[in-house]
């Protein structure tokens, strides 16, 4: 089920050949066995599936104790396949994952590989081909864009972390196959009328000035009898994230929402589009803050505030700044007390400069260095500096900052180009977004059908 019922638009990967760095993360909820001895009143009805409230499990078949291998419609997924894909996740998190977490992650990786196998099989059955040359080309692009290195260096990196180029290329083939299959079998049958697009444009105009939030989510489904266990799992994920784990990586591997494929990114939404529990939490969050687990209908949510803005309103953080940085090194071995005195004297001297045109001369007089950059985006600066510098006028400076080893630095604002008001998406852009959203929903249904009809043997 979807973690959040909302109208949101996320640009989907199948629009281009850029490979996403994670496979579709999804999970199948276990179905408990039911017996005819229970009365209908003591049962939970889920469509045609009837589950007794007081479930008794017959036998000791624990799926969590199975080795991580499977045969999917005749195609084998080996333990090595799982190990090599898991190694990529561990490398992304710098190995900061405990053994218990690795066990859960391994099961999720196996589920991802099963989905990936089903997607490749379906594409092949539909005569949708992905050439080896395309896979190699995308692999080279990943090496260049994500690693800044050639394919040989990337091969060496993958081996070093315990993975392989074959594992990553299989993931690339799976995603390209699925994208191409959707383009042929789903996208041509999706239609968004002009009236629907115009109605959405009017809603955007009416919402001008209201706040929008860009949120990341990790949704974990929980049946009533599994709530406590799922809640504990969610708490452990939060703990790993607070210790520096990658939110995007965890969302791709753990989240059971449709946003898992894009690292949990919900895109820009308004609080009214969220369930009350999430809206209340998001309202008081600051960018970069993590909150959860939050109980929502059907499970638990972990949310991360990526950013926030006002609809169709120019954001000061999009300003382009011209800055000068004045730096003064400290002598080696200086005490903290002496460093504070030097920093105070340094700030006082720089304060005598009559704007950016005079600061170089003043800095030279005390042996300080000056560097300039007239293309600094305010949004790219650290939070505390970002908010403070937007309140400066040209020629004014921030308080000094630094360390005993790096010395003391002062930023001076020399100019600022304010952003133009956001006019919002064009008709064509919004239509594409709406089409992509509908294709994604059909894709989820398509994959559910493949899972339901698959013959899977576990070893």
UniProtKB/TrEMBL annotation:
Ribonucleoprotein in keyword set? no
Q: Which Pfam families match?
A: Rotamase, SurA_N
Going by the UniProt record, its keywords in alphabetical order are: Chaperone, Isomerase, Periplasm, Rotamase, Signal
Query: What are the boundaries of the signal sequence?
Result: 1-39
Gene3D superfamilies found in the cross-reference section: 3.10.50.40, Porin chaperone SurA, peptide-binding domain
Q: Which domain of life is it from?
A: Bacteria
Q: Does the keyword Flavoprotein apply?
A: no
PANTHER family cross-referenced by the UniProt entry: CHAPERONE SURA (PTHR47637)
For this entry, the protein name equals Parvulin-like PPIase
Species this protein is from: Novosphingobium clariflavum
